[in-house]
Task: structure prediction
Amino acid sequence: MTAARVLVVHSSDELYGADRVLLLLAAELPRADFRLTVVVPAEAGFHGSLRRELGALGVEVLAMPLAVLRRRYFGPVGIARFGALLVTSTWRLRRLAAEHDLVHSFTTAVVPGALAAKLARRPHVWSAHELVTEPRWLWRLTSWLLPAMSRRVVAVSTAMRDHLVAGSARNEPVIRVVPNAVAPRPPAPEGVAALREELGLDGGVVLVSVGRLRPGKGQEDLLHALPAILAAHPGTRLVLAGEPAPGEEPYTGELAGLARRLGVADQVTFAGFRSDVPELLAVADVVVQPSRHPESFGLGLLEAMLAGTAVVATGVGATPEVLGDAGVTVPPCQPVALAGAVGSLLGDPGARAALAAAARERALARFGAEAFSAGWAAVYREALDDA
Result:
């Protein structure tokens, strides 16, 4: 039997959450059954990291201008620009879609893939990685659009599924849940040593937070919590790993300014984007994910759990679903509660170690790459059979 040709249309060319999920899918999906072609946006500000990694796996990757829903398009001028780009990118994708058996739009932010599949009369799968709550019209629109344009809609968590069904009951019959996964990679000892030297970590207590630098991720709340943590545990260092999204670069300076005003700047390191996440997690005593907005999954949580690191996170979206009892959750936007939870773990090494062990066990049992690959293969087959 000939492998089905799948055109995957993605919204970025980096190596953050959904990018890494796509990379894992390309690595784990049975090559005898499915052959992927991935389209990424040719957009200023992206590093081309995903493109390089996919290419190393032997996956065909094409970069072209794509209409991707971003905040910069929310306005009269932006809407006009988005509309023009939507027309041109849909038309280019239509010809590609006609050469494939199935089209997969990998995030809700990338719209032209669905339109191209419709024009080319190809079955379409749409995966939802973004749990949109504001603006409400966008939540309603995407909740309606996904089932209207797709044979199957894939949610990365039960929380994401429930959110889409609440937005439109039409999601229920076509939606499937395929939880995200991460392929475990042990840290290289020499890499850990080099990282400590690079970041100036002298062996003291280290807190790590990994993810996009943006207000919804709650880094401000973590900085506000840091003075209280330092009062109880002097010498604690905080490493913020990640970059702002393209167009939001000033936010790093805003966070740095806040750290100076709080008097904690000397204890905070802005590490930027890191490709050595396993090594970074290896130096962490506690990983803190202080999101203000609901997470559809929280891939950084899973990576920390697999690394055997204790986790403190805000209990929003799918975070409780991923962590279970193997992590500490606090309410969002409450630095005092965040400081208390982190300080409690720093003061009890035994509890910290037990939590870290439980987290790793849960991650390996529930979020393996094999189940992830099987889930996606089943979704693709269902969509193709329906067609």
Residues 76-98 form the longest helix (23 residues).
